[in-house]
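Case study 2.
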Amino acid sequence: MNDFLFYISQESVIKDIIIWGFFALVIIGMVLMLFIQQRHYKELKGELAELDKMHEHNVEFEFVLKAMDLAVWHLDVKSNKLTYDQDFREKSSHLILPNNATVDENTNMLDERDAERIAKTVKDICEGKIDDYHEVYRVKSPYSSKSFYWEESYATVAERDVEGMPTKIVGTTMRIDERKDLEEALVQARIRAEESDRLKSAFIANMSHEIRTPLNAIIGFTSVLPDVTTDEERHGLLDLIQENTQKLLRIIDDVVNISKVESGRTEINKTAFNLNEALRESMNQWAERLNPGVKLDSTFAYDSFTLTSDREKLEEIMGHLLSNAIKFTTQGSINVGYNHPEEGRVSIWVSDTGKGISEENLKHIFERFYKVDEFIPGAGLGLNVCTTMANSLGGSIGVESKLGEGSKFSLDIPVNL
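Prediction:
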């Protein structure tokens, strides 16, 4: 009996051990599962974070592409077709081929001056002769005033086959019209600066002659004056001295006016005055310098006309125009006048029957230091000064002329400045 009870008790203990062992295994399994799940959770969380980061980078990447008006493309070398992955270029102002257009179709869009060079570059990178390229070229366009627009492309080999030959090319393309316009403007500015420097050098060399000529006359005639015995000769010498003094003053005035323009120190003294009187006063000042046989007359739209402007600048402009007309008119007449005002503006002119100006010279006539005839005295500043002063009066100055038929210079200014 005791043996039986001991056996029963031992069997019960074994069952308890098995049950508790099973529960222990279950608990250990659950702990392992929780541990594995926690580990998977951390891995999944990291992957989600990476996905978010990649999405954020893609958004930033697209934003950069859009901000720069870039197109991103790839070229399948085997099929020879080009596909745009992203294209943020302004579609209303450039030509767009559909995806999977061939390289030849894209090359045919290029300007003839660049098409052959770009075709060779693309062929070289597809054949593995080069690993990447950077090209600037023109694209034909009916939307552009120049009939083309500028693009810049970068490309590189993205994938190769087992033999190392390129199978995929990736690249970017962007419009660069503004940059090319800026480059052109800088080139033109450099050319103008070099030309201005050349003209200034020529001007300085010429000024020594222009100033020396009247100055020598003044000094020479002044030294002879004490030896003159008759009043007629004395008056003749005094007239010559006075004439050369005025020439010297005009040269110096031109230089001073140019200096004022350069420094931005020009001032406007606006007053109301009679235009007829101002023009007649200018005519009277220059009437004595007319060549023999040349007539100076006027054609005024009104007997009296009030103009509100800077009288001193107006008279200075008229002085330059009359001086030029007198220099180049040896026969015939010089006419000063103005038209009936239109739309609040009046046109004042000085016309002559002189030698006229060739079409080639007309293009440069208002440029600084430019002289039509090197044998005629002058520093080449007068008409440039006139242009600057006309602009300061809210107006403009123009010229009509034919070689051998005379010239007509017109000053167009507002009636009320």
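The chain has a mean pLDDT of 79.
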